Amino acid sequence: MSKPFVMALRFLALLAFLLALSVVFAPDPATNSPYVSALSDLTVGPALAATCDHTKCNERGSFGQGCSSTSLNIGCLGSRTGGCSNKHC
Fold first, then answer.
1. Which of 47, 50, 66, 73 would suit a FRET pair with 86, their CA atoms being 20 to 30 Å apart?
2. Cα 56 vs. chain centroid, distance in angstroms?
3. 5: enclosing H helix or E strand
4. What are the extents of the domains in the chain?
5. Of all helices (H) and strands (E), which one includes residue 85?
6. How many Å is the Cα radius of gyration of the chain?
7. Is the dihedral of CA 5, 7, 13, 18 positive or negative?
8. What's the whole-model pTM score?
């Protein structure tokens, strides 16, 4: 056999040996170890868009009676003082 072919076989044998060692000594992912990241099993729910009530403030500016339906992407917000303001949705 030629020398480059023998060297390639040795390299592949060494690579296979190192791969086998990493599989044998790899930690079990299901164990409860203090060395596991706290973020490894973090789950996040789906992100949902906020709803819009499609109302706007009337000229009177009072909350409740002053809000009327609209096709625009705005919502009617009331304040503690009885005022009204529009928010973009």
1. 47
2. 33
3. helix 3-24
4. 52-89
5. strand 84-88
6. 33
7. negative
8. 0.34
